[in-house]
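Structure ticket #2291
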Amino acid sequence: SPAAVAQGVGPDGEVAGVGFLVAERILGTCAPVVTAAGSEPGGRVRLAFPHARGAEMVDGVVDGQLWRAVEEEDVAFVRLGASPAGARPLPLGSAEGCRGHQVRSFGFPAQAPPEGHFGFAVGGALLPGAGGRRPHLQLTSANDLTTGFSGGPVWDEVSGLVIGMLTEITGPDTYQRGQGIAYVTPAQVLRDVLPELAAREVCPYRGLEPFTAEHARWFEGRQDAVRQVLANLAQQRRLTLLLGPSGSGKSSLIQA
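Resolution: structure written out below.
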């Protein structure tokens, strides 16, 4: 949910980047976001949660013991005095096996409304760290992910879990090749730095997203409607209409 996504606010009120709740009163982001917000390890940072109840502003302290510079894991954790009302930590999954999956992030680029928007991409290869560098998850078709998404969570649309944190957006070469590529720090790296972060294998809560055949085991509560549809189909009628207002679950009923 975007309620768990925060803006790092700089000294002049500008948005320095993105962070998100990874645990109660703990926000994860990347090191450059903290620096751009005018802070440092052990320093204080101002955060805005535009989608939390009341669009709350909070202060946090950058945990110096959990600080990892750009040339290392490029991770920063900010400890909050209290989590914003209505904002729950985002469940972390794994970047393993997400190749070809649709993924999305949430950020605050200049071309978006002040409250931010979603950006979409496709999961690619999970690249092992070479020469002491951290592993990366490569994203393709990532033209949506521009400046203003750095530090944002990356959701796997199949599992509904956060599989990492967006840390790098590449620019094209002199031949305009390589556009639409972005890199993600996998969730496992976040857990390596802060082991108390537990991995979740599945997330049964889809929010406003429809259930599909992959989520059939979690689709409950529509048994009567399912029986009615199946009974109608069993009569071999040429047409069955499924009617209901937007958001009532028609797509989930058919697919899951």
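Closing remark: The first helix runs from residue 31 to 36.
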